Amino acid sequence: MRVVHVASEVFPFSRSGGLGDVLGALPAQQARLGAEVTVVSPWYADITQPVRELWRGPLTVPGTVALGDVRVGELVQDGVQFLFVGLGAFDRPGLYFPDDVWRFTQFGRAVLPALERVGVRPDVLHGHDWQAGLVVALARLAGVRAVFSVHNLQYQGRWNLIDGTGWTGLPDWVYTHEGLEFHGDVNLMKAGLVFASQVTTVSPTYAQEITTPEYGEGLEGLLIRLTHEGRLSGVLNGLDQARWDPRTDADITPFADPAGKAACGAALRAEYGLDEAPILATVSRLAEQKGMDLLIGALPELTRDWNVVVLGGGDPRLEAALREWDAHPRVAFAQGMNEPLAHRIYAGADAFAMPSRFEPCGLSQMIAMRYGTLPVVRETGGLVDTVPHEVGFRFGPASVQGLVDACAAARSTFDDRAEWTARAAEAMSLDFSWDGPTREYLGLYARVLSSPLRPLTGLAGA
Question: Which of 101, 249, 279, 408 could form an S-S bond across to 349 if both were Cys, CB 3.0 to 4.6 Å?
Fold first, then answer.
């Protein structure tokens, strides 16, 4: 089985969050289980690894503005072929910009011709998030079976319908309410949902949540239909347990059980001048989706019983608020993303806060539990699917008081050292490996390949 993944980022070449982590782990595990796997992503200017150029030249897609000079490079690692598509739109440093819909539309048009140029013919194409939605649509129209994964429905890749149709390479008949049209815009997330043979989300609970108005981002009607057609399911993300292993982690003093965390806790306290109160930490993108405004609002109460360590960047208003709190003797804020520091925080903290308003899957809570750090989470999405009641502390509605109450329950439990240690030991024993999810995906691909291509009913001209 030749599987081609298409994504905007892949660890360790490019990464801004969980999507990159998934594409850094899932393809390698699929290759270990016998699939032929190729991953296609943009050739960003920041990629420093030695990529071998396979092809360079003009690529054209009928009916669209010319792409100009395109490069295709290759790097093979862990049994996976990584292909990088180089376009002028990706020559600037960084991953994401305000003109991303235009940039990833160009990328989407280039993927299939680039694959053809280097002789890669997928049995199944697996697109990830809106940046790959156009590729899924073009693949389906070319007779290639496609799976589409929603990692975060909030980001959809929309732009004005009048301005956008000439850029996609898609026929005019797809720009209807049943196709890509969405409130007068072209919607690339919707392209993936409409044209894929199967759609997945990154946790079973999130697959249910997005069929409701609260989480459906305006697409809940389409997602309900996909559910009724048996085309929407949730496959829980795994975790790269070799990369996140407290027994072998080179960034910390390694440990194998909760008792071994003491040295890491002492080191984190020394690094930030914290007192002997337990440490509540978070490593997160600073955004309201992640509930970081709730965490900031709770700090007056939390600092009575906890030291609080925050690593992250994002919303300038949240960054500014945390910089002010950084002067508090029980608060430490490190702005930006720093992977070695993240390892030290996961290992040295006692508890980990994730008050997300929604969380498609989340990896931080899994990492925290690997390191015996107990999560305090809101009951949503993948947090429900991964944090057992007997391990972590969960709360319902997204509110400052809900977070404060859950942290108070955690603090009370912390004083019962036998109970806390038992929870930490249970957390460290949980299996978050990619083996189970990988087998689910391979089974899904097999079902897609054994089924006839789904007719594009309801699309005029299909």
Answer: 279
